[in-house]
Amino acid sequence: MNYDLTAEQKMIRKLLRDFAEGEVAPGADERDRSKRFPIEIFEKMADLNLMGLPFPEEVGGAGADTVSFAIAVEELSRVCASTGITYSAHISLGCAPIYLFGTEEQKQRYLVPLCQGKTLGAFGLTEPGAGSDAGGTRTRAVKDENGWVINGSKCFITNASYAKFLALTAVTGQSDEGRREITAFIVPTDAPGFQVLDNLNKLGLHSSNTTELVLEGVRVPEDSVLGEIGQGFKQFLITLDGGRIGIGAMAVGIAQGAYELALNYARQRTQFGRSLSKFQAIQHKLADMHMLIELARTYVYKAAWLKDQGRKFTKEASMCKLFASEIAMKVCNQAVQIHGGWGYIHDYKVERFFRDVKLTEIGEGTSEIQRNIIAREIGC
Questions:
Q1: Which ranges of the chain does DSSP label H, i.e. alpha helix?
Q2: Can you tell me the distance from the alpha carbon of 210 to that of 158, in angstroms, rounded to the nearest whole number?
Q3: What domain of life does the native source organism fall in (predicted)?
Q4: What SS3 state is found at 174?
Q5: Residue-wise pLDDT tens digits, 147-171
Q6: Which amino acids are annotated catalytic?
Q7: pTM tops 0.90, yes or no
């Protein structure tokens, strides 16, 4: 096995590292306080041809791979998790379902402007009563002579305030076995009856956009169906496999950023006449943090590599997301502990990392759901 990155992947890592430190990091604390969405960052990323990074050039992408996408999410999240999750959701949830299931006309109409950064990608699956039980969707779409009429609501939807359109699921019928048939639709966010509500007060990720969607008699034409009628839930589960690689990479990035802050603080902070980094208790904490991050990163890259090879990666996506998110929580907790009282203060940054990281154990399926998937995949 070759663990070296390719020349292109190394170039992307350097580009994203320089961009993250030069453009994203300087305003991260201020954006966290003010809860301001950094639209200008994504405009600059569009100028660098990053908004369609893993998609083919013929749809406006950069023709890179999933490993490069994971590297990009990690580097952004290392300095600002809000920026990392915005980018991850744009690529893996906003662009991917249109790329995977859209017609050629839909790709040209919707995917090209997404990859060019002319709009942000979003994905409407979760509902107030259908989170882990995503099959419990209550949003409904009824067909008439003019197309479809959609009624319902979605919650915890990333990027919707900055999306001109998004894919979402709705119940369109019932199978002979009595199961609800769920279909995916591409819906313009400015359609009459469509409301995007951005009023959630979150624990962390303050400068990312997390919304609720309300659809009251929203009418879309027949060609708004994404993929096959009745296959929307299956399509979105496939989409979530890719999304879990993004969340795993985000968790690795947050953990790396928190670890670096803790290491630098331990080297500089003096107690009892010597730096904290000379105390064995602190050394062991930092050694464990470094080890866990390296292991998580390796498995995120493995899941991404499997996806790039066209091989099955459902189990590996769940494993990388589960492991990376849980070790990131541990790393951020220890980073705060190493900082002592200062770790509880906003100016020392690890407090932000600690608040932001919790979402990685929830988004794209909770840790409990990941364990269910892994158990199913190993034949339990």
A1: 7-19, 28-34, 39-47, 66-77, 81-89, 96-101, 104-106, 112-115, 232-268, 280-308, 314-339, 350-357, 367-377
A2: 5
A3: Bacteria
A4: strand
A5: 999 999 999 999 999 999 999 999 9
A6: 364
A7: yes
